[in-house]
Amino acid sequence: MSDVDVLERLERILRSDEDVPPERAAELAVMLDEPPIQDVVRLVERSTATRAAVVLRLLSRRRSIEVFDTLDAAHQADLIDALGDRAVYEFFSELDPDDRVSLLDELPAEIAERFLRNLDDSERDITGVVLGYPRGSIGRRMSPEVPHIYEDLTVDETLQELRRVADDVETIYTLPIIARDHRLVGVTSLRDLFTADGSAEVSGLMDKPVFAAAHDDAEETARWFVPLDMLAMPIVDESGRLLGMLTFDDAADIIEEADSEDTARSGAHEPLQQPYLSTPLLKIVRSRIVWLLVLAVSALLTVQVLDTFEDTLAAAVVLSLFIPLLTGTGGNTGNQAATTVTRALALGDVRPRDVGAVAWREVRVGMLLGALLGSLGFLLATLVYGLDIGIVIGSTLFGVCTMSATVGGIMPIVAKKVGADPAVFSNPFISTLSDATGLIIYFLIAKAVLGL
Predict the structure, then answer these.
(1) 144 inside domain
(2) What is residue 179's DSSP assignment?
(3) For 205-232, what is each residue's pLDDT tens digit?
(4) What CATH number has the domain bearing residue 130?
(5) Could you tell me if 326 and 413 lie in one domain?
(6) What is the domain count for the chain?
(7) Can you list the alpha helix ranges (DSSP code H) found in 189-322?
(8) pLDDT digits (tens, 9 = 90+) for 396-410
(9) N or C: at which end does the chain have fewer Cβ atoms within 10 angstroms?
């Protein structure tokens, strides 16, 4: 039986009976040992908390810990009640300190405190180091488990130390070199150590370190670190003392989480933070309802504009036919600009102080887009409804595109300046604002051209 067939059969069994009978448990446990670990993870991610807990209990201890470790922190938190204390404590103690803290952030305070109490003293102290840094900082995502390689050690002494601590540290491939007061002085690699003379001091092998401070923003740090293609880099305190290491995979996770959050918010909902099929229905509803209420209230601005220009519409009913075209064009133009600038902010291509340059660039882009679309709108509207209506539509498209592109470009930067997430001020609000402002432009031009 292929791995796909095994997983499909397991999924059918779990859907038909979440309480697996004892006589079937042994059979399912054997079946779960057959597929690759990534397929078992996929099965867990497609299952409810109760079904996922069944899978984790039936897996061997090693595989169940591996699967639990790969899940998102929010998904792990959902499994807590279904798994029971004994299994949860075991999984929790096996997590790396930074992953442990991510899970604690998703749990109620009393449960998090209980979990910490069940750790042994050394693991509790290491976890406490990471917990001591604010959410959103890179210190919160580092691993404090690093080898202490002093600059005056020889290569042989260093290799001996690495053999001693290899099972207890996050990585041994990129190695920070420290002075006796724990200040970071350089980095070296395991490759360099293996190829060096055993009696040489590691200070002769080290390179200038690339590092980050523990209080630096996690997303910004991860975004400049990942393109460097380094396996890991040191994290230091304000005095330059080594605190931990940020690995490439942890940095990639930070970027993935940030991109998922931006994508969700630009689509007018909060990120689920776990696989869709394993997310409880009420959690999905909560992620959407607040945004829908906010946007529904803000859309009243568009209604108010239409009410203000009711007489204009009554005098030239044909104007109402073009409202969907104009509002749609304005919203799409603004969304394009906002999405582009939000992405540029995330990548560091644009900084808040570049607001003037961005505004001037988007004014010109909007004018060019408006000229192209306005010319087409003028031509078609003139052919069907006459020259006056053609002038109104062409002029409005030019004005709406220019305005929407400019506003869409600067709004994410304004959000960044005031400390808000640029994605929050992206597509949903830009669309609403463009609708209302575009209608004002439309009716003012119509009144001027048509003499209403």
Answers:
(1) no
(2) -
(3) 999 999 999 999 999 999 999 999 899 9
(4) 1.25.60.10
(5) yes
(6) 3
(7) 190-195, 218-225, 248-266, 281-298, 300-308, 310-315
(8) 999 999 999 999 899
(9) N
